[in-house]
Amino acid sequence: MFVLNNRTGKSILLTSTLLSGGIIVVVFSVLLMQSLGAIQGAGLGLISTEWNPALGQFGILSMLYGTVMVTGIALLLAVPVGISCAILISEVLPSRFRIIVKSTLEVLAGIPSIIYGLIGVALFSVWIGNIFELSTGRTILTAGIILAIMILPIIITLTEEALQNVPSHYRESALALGLYKYEVITGTLLSLAKRDIVIAVLLGLGRALGETMAVMLVIGSIDRIPDPILNVFVPGQTITSKLGREITESAFGSLHFSSMIFMGFLLMIVVFAITILSQRYIKSGDRLHE
User: Fold this and answer.
1) Is 226 helix (H, G, I), strand (E, B) or coil?
2) Contact 140, 73 (CB under 8 A)
3) Which residues sit opposite 51 in a β-bridge?
4) Which three-class secondary structure state does DSSP give residue 287?
5) How many CB atoms lie within 10 A of CB 55?
6) d(CA 142, CA 232)
7) Cα dist. 187→89, 154, 175, 184, 282 in Å?
8) Which residues are 69's β-sheet partners?
9) Which of 56, 139, 193, 201 is the most buried (most CB within 10 A)?
10) 3-state secondary structure 96-147
11) CA distances for 265 relative to 5, 36, 153, angstroms
12) What three-state secondary structure class fits 91?
């Protein structure tokens, strides 16, 4: 049997680390280089709401708005529902039912995003259109609901694991002091698991920001900011849905293509920033527990 010695193991780890870092640098560099054409050619025109390749207009504000709104709706719906479900699974359900529910969540997490998109087109867009008497149910709200459903398994699973990782003696001590069950959960368990719950939400946020197919199918394709600005019952566009629709229609090296890559570059920066913030949050929690 082949056994790795200490030197070989360190070499493999170092190589893997350098390879991973190199891939990130290459992706970042390629996106930046391909975005320079848009930065130099469109300039401040990128910071506008007008998108018309035929006229040389490449404003990305409407896509940024759609990304923020859809992601915000998804988190607004998924976070309270996800945490509540995690509490139910971890602290209320008997262990035999807990296994069934967790297995079901794992299946939901593995469903391809295109399936969620098709369900959104066939069901949710029709329901939204009928309930609110809209001409089309493919709206920002519909996209937010679909995203919320997609990130729920992530938030529920990780939050439930965070609650399970709280040592049992905290529960026993709280109950011995005469606290009710809900007081133990809200006052003790959620407080102790807060850091891991925040990380679960951030992972869900990362999934929501990067989703393409499901959003593209249900959000519509209107490149504008609605009036009033908080109107979520109109079609919109996100960065990922815009990329999914138009990237193949743009000529490589053109200003249109460069503007599309620039939007992807901005999205990568946002995801990268979220990752850094989550890592700093983890490290700050570790220092507090030392």
Assistant:
1) coil
2) yes
3) 58
4) helix
5) 8
6) 9
7) 18, 24, 12, 5, 21
8) none
9) 139
10) HHHHHHHHHHHHHHHCCHHHHHHHHHHHHHHHHHHHCCCCCCCCHHHHHHHH
11) 41, 11, 28
12) helix
Q: How far apart are CA 212 and CA 243, in angstroms?
A: 8
Phi and psi angles of residue 56, each rounded to the nearest 5 degrees, phi first: 75, 25
Please tell me the number of Cα atoms within 13 Å of 257 on its side-chain side: 10
User: With b meaning 16 or more CB within 10 Å and e meaning fewer, what string describes 70-106?
Assistant: bbebbbebbbeebbebbbebbbeeeeeebeeebeebe
Give pairs for 285-288: CB < 8 Å, separation 24+. 285/195
Which tokens sit at 228? Answer: 């009033």
Amino acid (one-letter) located at 117: G
Tokens of 265: 């570059």
Alpha helices in the chain (DSSP H): 6-41, 61-87, 95-110, 113-119, 125-131, 140-164, 168-176, 181-184, 190-192, 194-210, 213-218, 239-246, 255-288
Q: What is the pLDDT along the chain (290 residues), one digit of tens a residue?
A: 444 567 887 888 889 889 988 998 999 999 999 999 999 988 888 889 899 888 888 999 999 999 999 999 999 999 999 999 999 988 888 878 888 888 888 888 888 889 999 999 999 999 999 999 888 899 999 999 999 999 999 999 999 989 988 888 888 888 888 888 888 888 888 888 888 898 899 888 988 888 888 999 999 888 889 989 999 999 999 999 999 888 888 888 899 999 999 999 999 998 888 888 877 877 776 544 54
